Amino acid sequence: MPDDLQKSKETQIPTNLRLLLVVEEIAKAGTPLKPMQLSAALGLPKPTIHRLLQTAEAEGFLQRDLDGRSYGPGLRLRQIAVHTMSSERLRTGRLAILKAVAEEIGETCNLATPDREGMTYLDRVETKWPLRIQLPIGTQVPFHCTASGKMYLSTLRDSTLEAVLNSRSLEGLTEKTIITSDALRAELAETRKRGYSQDDEEFMLGMTAVAVPVIDSTGRLMATLSVHAPGQRHSIANLIQFLPNLKDAAGKLSDLHST
After folding, report:
1. This model's pTM is above 0.90
2. Among 78, 144, 230, 233, whose Cα sits 20 to 30 Å from the Cα of 40?
3. By the 8 A CB rule, do 55 and 23 touch?
4. CATH of the domain at 45
């Protein structure tokens, strides 16, 4: 835009609001943004944007993406998102939905959110069976070998997925873990096609799991809803029969966080 118009728009944004608007724009985009993109979206000069980004990065609210030029949510911003989702009103409603679906299925149900290094369990309702798998709230699990992680990876853009796959090795946690990028890409393509993900003893021997996405108001993945069980009680084929229950609960969770 012309210099005089840009200056006019800049003066309309209070100084103490500019950093919040930058953070909001990055969170809203759902993908890392470059300073030029932020300048165009907010109407602020590039030098101003660079100063704001440097401040937010230094304080841990934003961090540079793998390309070194784009910025995405930093640890403190991700923690704010988790704390917001854990507010009393939301958590009370969320646990009611989780408890209902766990009772319908008869197995442990989990709500997990993506972090930079893996999926973090935000909430869970345990099965009443004495034989259960202990993965408490706050546990972080890998992307590549869990149902929740593969569900998240399947929603990423190709370029982002490639950056993730190239940034880390695929550790084999069991003999069934997918440890090659090509095999994982094929599994993620199948996940996108069928609308759910699965873990057939890939993360932990004797544990099976399936997961579905919880979508936000913009159509992006906000979290995953999964059920896991000992393989002695449920094979993957057994768990798949509970997909209608999981999808119904995921829809309710989406509605809860959209109001």
Report:
1. no
2. 78
3. no
4. 1.10.10.10
